[in-house]
Write a structure and sequence with these properties.
The protein has 245 residues and is of the alpha/beta class. It is 39% helix and 17% strand. α3 packs antiparallel against α7, α4 runs antiparallel to α7 and α5 packs across α6.
Length: 245
């Protein structure tokens, strides 16, 4: 199988509902950085809220690595900005303030093992248990980013302890070279039609100007989404891969 074969298979997954994905019970979206939750699950969160299904979000890192060399936005200021952006995005999706949490791990340096990893998993489990969460959503383990890979590992460990279902939402994996060999079982899961919430999701994405624009213009090496990178998240479908635990 190639990456292209796998991505084509994702586009052929059956359509499901928010109820199919969550069982109608509370769920928790784990986001490596402030913005991943909106990019991958913005439609899910908005539609769940309209259906009376309780969605929660936990953002794992402080997001301070996107502009490492900005004189105007040193880490503390950038962390505060990105938290504010996340809160504004959540509001656009109809997510109450008490359903958004921040673990504040160091961006681009999340622990992949050891006591710090275990402590992060403990925090995820505690949040899920406190809110009666039955399903976890997390970035795909094949996303080529260290924090996305670690988030996936944390979610998998937490889901095993909770006995919860686990779905992965691809972000950077959607841009893997299509011709590369790919050792992954055929995907199972659902596509979600988010047409009704598409405008809400777009407004939520726009609440992340630090990532979507050059508003911080004093770091020539800063991260900023290109139109090509953003395009997969502006459509009417979100994709969720069932993780076999």
């Amino acid at each position: 199988m190639t990456v292209g074969d796998y991505l084509d298979a994702l586009e052929a997954l059956p359509f499901g509902t928010v109820g199919d994905l969550t069982g109608g019970a509370p769920f928790l979206v784990l986001s490596p950085h402030p913005d991943d939750e909106t990019l991958g699950c913005g439609g899910l969160l908005a539609l769940a809220g309209r259906a009376g299904i309780e969605g929660h979000v936990m953002i794992l890192t402080d997001g301070a690595a996107s502009h490492r060399n900005s004189p105007s936005h040193p880490p503390e200021r950038l962390t505060a900005l990105r938290r504010d952006e996340a809160e504004r995005a959540a509001a656009e999706l109809g997510l109450p303030e008490d359903r958004l949490g921040f673990l504040a791990l160091r961006d681009a340096a999340t622990p992949s093992e050891g006591p710090a990893f275990d402590a992060a998993v403990d925090a995820i489990v505690a949040r899920a248990e406190a809110t009666d969460v039955r399903t976890l959503f997390v970035t795909w383990g094949r996303d080529p980013h260290c924090d996305h890979e670690t988030a996936f590992a944390m979610a998998r460990a937490a889901a095993a302890r909770l006995g919860a279902a686990l779905y992965a939402y691809p972000v950077w994996g959607l841009h893997l070279p299509r011709g590369d060999a790919f050792d992954e079982p055929d995907p199972r899961g659902y596509r979600l039609d988010i047409a009704e919430a598409r405008d809400d999701k777009r407004r939520a994405i726009d609440r992340y100007p630090s990532q979507m624009t050059r508003m911080i213009d004093d770091d020539p090496d800063a991260f900023c989404f290109t139109a090509e990178q953003l395009a997969p998240f502006l459509g009417a479908v979100e994709t969720f891969i069932e993780v076999r635990t």
